[in-house]
Description:
Rossmann fold
Amino acid sequence: MEKVLLHACCAPCSGAIVEWMEQNGIKPVIFYSNSNITPHDEYIHRLEECIRYARKWGLEIVEDSYDHEAWLGCAAGLEAEPERGARCLECFKHRLLRAAQYASENGFDTLATTLASSRWKSLEQVNAAGEWACSQVTGVTWWAKNWRSGGLQERRNQIIKEENFYNQLFCGCEFSRR
Ligand code: SF4
């Protein structure tokens, strides 16, 4: 593993993973690709928190283009699905494919995501989407580490308090606000 691209969904989910990578000699580039988030103010608020945390560690952060209309295409017909259902798998695939494409085009050999740290998400779905996304591009391997084990779940919650992160009460899309 030489160059890691870390897709980040929000600062609360990034905290312990970034800290663990730093402690293990890995300096990832953060990739913020979250066209699922609406309204746009909410998207910006989460982005700003990610920028604040990346700066703390001296990490580069790349913002992907925001296109909620395109994201709605991947959720079409799945609006009524519950969280952890079929819509969420498509949502992960949409964002992680963009991350894998960026990784492949910019010389990264490894891709991971902070989505894997949240107990509200299906780890199985996150890994299936990540494996699939990496299979669509060349030269990028999916890092399927369990980012909830080894005390990382507890550390995640501590860092949220220490950093006073904005901790959103809904996942991101309009369908998760119901
Ligand atoms: S609930 Fe969250 S993971 Fe599921 S589709 Fe909406 S934004 Fe994506």
